[in-house]
Amino acid sequence: MKILHHIGSYFLLIKRSLSRPEKASIIYRQTLKEIEKVGIDSFPIVVIVSLFVGAVITIQSNYNIENPILPKYLVGLTVRDSLLLEFSSTMVALILAGKVGSSIASELGMMRVTEQIDALEVMGINSAAYLILPKMIAAAFFFPILGLLSMIVGIIGGYLACILGNVIPPADYIYGIQYAFKPYYITYALTKVVFYAIIITSIASYLGYNVEGGAIEVGKASTKAVVQSSILILMINLVLTRLILQ
Amino acid sequence: MISVKGLYKSYNDNHVLNDVSVTFEQGKCNMIIGRSGSGKTVLLKSIVGLVKVDQGEIWYDDKNFTQMNEREQQSIRKKMGMLFQGAALFDSLTVEENVMFPLDMLTEQGGAEKLDRVNFCLERVKVTSSNKLFPSELSGGMKKRIAIARAIALNPQYLLCDEPNSGLDPETGIVIDNLIKELTQEFDMTTIINSHDMNSVLEIGDNVVFIYKGCKCWEGSGSEILKTDNEALNNFVFATNMARQIKRT
Predict the structure, then answer these.
(1) Of the candidates B21, B17, B44, B69, which has an alpha carbon nearest to the alpha carbon of residue B212?
(2) Predicted pLDDT of residue A172
(3) Average pLDDT over residues A75-102
């Protein structure tokens, strides 16, 4: 019964967040601020993780297909497909669930326990629309950019592994990256990323917005936000993959 | 004027408010007093709609707040200013931005006009040259003053204060109390103050309501408190041995 209560409350909060805000210009300004917090501040972690994972996939792929019959360019193809189909969307989303999700849950949780959300309500302001809607818009808009960045940096990581680690000839790697390329993979990945962005921001917002108690509960909400959004991302990944890649 | 009629609120089997009826008059400092856990914060939060009551009515002048939908309640709330126990200033905004916030959100005023109003409110609470500071850089008393400035930014008809001088030294507490009293008279607001500080009650309480175990147990003026024979109220007011000795003499 408790889970049904939470599901109902979650959708009511989302409905309230999507209702007409007091002033569109304020929401626009808040969205720009959130783009910086949710998106631009996540650049370094996405770049670092993607660079190293791209290099590691290259080395591992070469290790696993060391067969004279198989052409070397398959390494590039494997790296590209791994990055495009799974890593740059789902794995990056899991990383962002940790960074962005916990940050949103603790920010809103602290606002709740220090009565800042109550202060908004007493002013006659729809606190859900003011606090949550800009986060959802910012993430839905900017996470795909982070996904694209991850793809590019991951491929560069693989290329650097080829040059610096002498894994395979760089020309073979580049040929593999281009071989049998389906642009649809990018559409598929970015579609998933938009869903993940909404999952991360809405779940974290729900848990932070409804915190009751003090600092310990804020910490718990933050942890729950990461765990629950990660699980949901993996479940939605399966559903979307089944639906889109039929 | 704010009226509360037959208010009931319970959490599971815990009856927090039991048939509370009281009228808070305009232009007066109406005080709700009571022990911790007596239900006074729930009463205040019910009045502003942050807590949904089980039964009863809340009237703002001639408008029944409990019968309104969310949008209508928001329109009433735009006429309220509230001072929270911990001030509830927005951490990410400066003093100036905090006071300007309701003007930004709820009015169509231009930048210069809003800034004038912010400076007027800050001067009114005797805070100057702190416009660019963040709440984390302010003392407890300063935070309360800024919160009052934010609460009066929109010229509210109703001012609600939840323990305005908790966490403050007695001297600063009295300064905040007097400020609330002055503003109430100056702007002819209906002010409700939730407190268990007897200094405040005696200093500024025009009308005092004593809540005991979720019920309205006593009502009268600040000066009448000292003469009452209500046992529960006497136990609350004269809680210390010293206070009891003073009462006997």
Answers:
(1) B17
(2) 93
(3) 94
For testing the chain A interface, which of B68, B74, B148 should be mutated: the one with the most A CBs within 10 Å?
B74
This model of the complex carries an ipTM of 0.86
d(CA B50, CA B164): 18
Q: Which domain holds residue A59?
A: 44-240
Cα B53 from chain centre: 19
In total, the C-beta contacts within 8 angstroms joining chain A to chain B are: 54
Residue A246 has pLDDT above 80, yes or no: no
When scoring A123, A133, A209, A218 by the number of chain B Cβ atoms within 10 A, the one with the most, hence best to mutate, is A123
Q: What is the pLDDT of residue A178?
A: 94
For chain B, the residue count is: 249
B18: containing domain? 2-79+158-248
Mean pLDDT of A113-123: 93
Element (H, E) at B83: strand B80-83
Three-state SS sequence of A133-195? HHHHHHHHHHHHHHHHHHHHHHHHHHHHHHHHHCCCCHHHHHHHHHCCCCCHHHHHHHHHHHH
Beta bridge partners of B58: B4
Say whether both B9 and B61 belong to one domain.
yes
Whether residue B87 lies inside any domain: the answer is no
Residue with tokens 């609350």: B236
Q: Which of B50, B84, B106 sits opposite A124 (nearest CB)?
A: B106
pLDDT of residue B249: 67
Nearest Cα to Cα of residue B105 among A210, A129, A33, A208: A129
pTM summary value: 0.87
Q: Tell me what percent of the residues of chain A surpass a pLDDT of 90.
A: 84
Token pair recorded at residue B219: 């009502």
What confidence score (pLDDT) does residue B229 get? 82
